[in-house]
Amino acid sequence: MRIYPNPKFNQPVDFQSITTEDIKSAALSVIERANSQIGELTGTQANEKNFENTLKSLDEIYSGLSDIFSIIYLLGFVHPDNDIRNEAQAKISELEKFENEISLNEAIFEAVQQYSRSEEAQNLSGYKKRYLTKVLQNFESSGFLLSKEKRDELKALKNRLADVGLVFDTNISEYQDFLFVTEEEIEGLPEDYKEARKQEGGTYKIDLSYPSYRPFMQLSVSDEARRKLYIKYLNRAAEKNPPVLLEMIDLRQQIARMLNFQTFAEFQLANKMAKTTEKVWKFEHDLIDKVKTKAEQDYAELAEIKSKTTPNASEKEIKNWESAFYNNVLMKEKYEVDNQKVKEYFEMNNVINGLFRISETLFDIQFVELSEKSVWQEDVRFFAIYSNKQEIAHFYLDLYPRDNKYGHAACFPLYSGRETENGYNKPLASLVCNFPKPTPQKPSLLPHDDVVTFFHEFGHLLHSLLTTSPLGSMAGTSVANDFVETPSQLFENWAWNYEALQMFSLHYKTGEVLPKELFTKMWDSRNVGSGLFALQQIFYGLLDMTFYDKFDPKSGQDTSDVVKNLQDAISLYPFVEGTRMEASFGHLNGYAAGYYGYLWALVYAQDIFSEFTENGIFDTKTGKKLKTNIISKGSTSDEYEMVCEFLGREPNNSAFLKSLGL
Ligand SMILES: [Zn+2]
């Protein structure tokens, strides 16, 4: 038993010697322990209930489970051994089910409700009050305040929604269609792309997957072929999904109404940073006109390059299926950055040094690499963070690709920081990335995109590790969905700031700093099309909000009318008749009144960063304020209030608009 219990409190896991048996026994023991803790929590006499033996205990049940669950979850995605990964995957779903059962446990609800009526509970303040409210809210949204009959009805609606949502997603992922194009129509695409799609008889078969669609839209010189492919792409699942979408919206509406909300969006937003639908509508509408100014400049630039490069271009208009193509031409003609050259300034160890030095300066912490480590793969690195000479957290860096490893870049929080009877449970997390692997001839050189990704994920990592939350459920990245990407997107800014880059973008051979001229080119190319992109995000956000806040699925109105109206009002690219993008807009199920969160989190990230551009990007006072008011707090305070407290004012969107290059 090497995973559970920990070999010693606050000692890291012995990953190197983990076996499938360890995973089995860890999952079993952690469930047993939780069950006995639940027994204690629910067994306490009503008049003896207090915060410690009710809410703190509940937090410990969830956090204790989560510590072990997270380790097993990580193993399921990164361990090189098949058996271990498979065993971990099996236990992940078992533990998820168990956690779901806890959230529906009647006895726990009664215990919490009983406690909530006590005098102590009525007088709680700060994070304790907030935690009680959140726990009760969660029970309420599971229908615990409804009659048995109504609750069963709610359960049935939720089950039906899960099924219908799955059908919606599957109709998208399984949808297949192809465009057969001639040699002429595929002109512009590279040979390997063509080779992979070649048919007998000299035609090419283009499917609608991203690796097929995207290059074709960027590179095919045939307007007509791109138009056909675009229309096919926007008609994915168009036959099957419109009625499914209507039912999905209807079910969500019914669920919201049963829980006393007018609309599903209202229900979804109640425990987000935004809180109300009005705030989200206002947020989006405040952006439209100003973002449009940049989008119009972007559009004019595309039209200009079109008239320059297409001799007989009859019109100044850019069609939907021309935008990616001319954007690509524009990048080549005017903004091309030699990415091979840029890479040479971002050797992995220099980037890590940069990240460390920036974080050390801002947050008054120190990083120490630990040579004594037990890891799942030999090249995984292990670090400790110190603050005031105290070791406060640990983390792993698993940086390079290998077979069967998780394929993207992400932060995996492992242990959540919290107070325990033995002292503070130190947070632990791992970054799992897929950066270019060094070879004996060449070190790992990162494209600048990867540098930005590294900063982004490191932002999540610090949010997890610098937490001082007394409760695990409120620690680190446990904040509302529409705020969780704020610290990470905030951190990206240092990877885009020349003053910061000068510190670590050193040529791997000569040690020369990234030339200012090259940086300026990178900066200019970053802002190409930024307005059009942001406008598209606003459109998606509003579409999602409209369906879940201002649309009656029983009215008989066609969902594509909703798309048409919005698109014509917002986008510079008018709606194309005969398309149904909503049928394959999977976020309508995944996010459901949450898509706005992408832009929301970014706008606040840029506003926060504006304090650094004003006071200095290495300003320790501003850094300290950021740590105290936001990064260390987890969700112990209201997210909006945290931002206001940091800024000393209400947040606004002007820094974001400036970041688009306006
Ligand atoms: Zn992120």
Helical content class: 55-70%
User: Hetero groups bound?
Assistant: zinc ion
Which structural class should the secondary elements be placed in? alpha+beta
| Cα radius of gyration in angstroms | 26 Å
Q: Helical region count?
A: 27
Runs in which pLDDT lies below 50 for 5 or more consecutive residues are none
**Global shape:** globular
Q: How is the biggest beta sheet arranged?
A: 5 strands, mixed
Mean pLDDT: 95
Strand order in space, largest sheet: 3-4-5-9-6
Report the β-strand fraction as a percent range.
5-15%
Number of strands: 9
What can you see in these coordinates?
By secondary structure, the chain is an alpha+beta fold. 56% of the residues lie in helices and 7% in strands. It contains 27 helices and nine strands. The strands form three sheets. Strands 3-4-5-9-6 form a five-stranded mixed beta sheet. A two-stranded antiparallel ribbon has the order 1-2. Strands 7-8 form a two-stranded antiparallel ribbon. The termini are far apart. The chain binds zinc ion. Zinc ion (ZN) is lined by residues 456, 460, 485, 488.
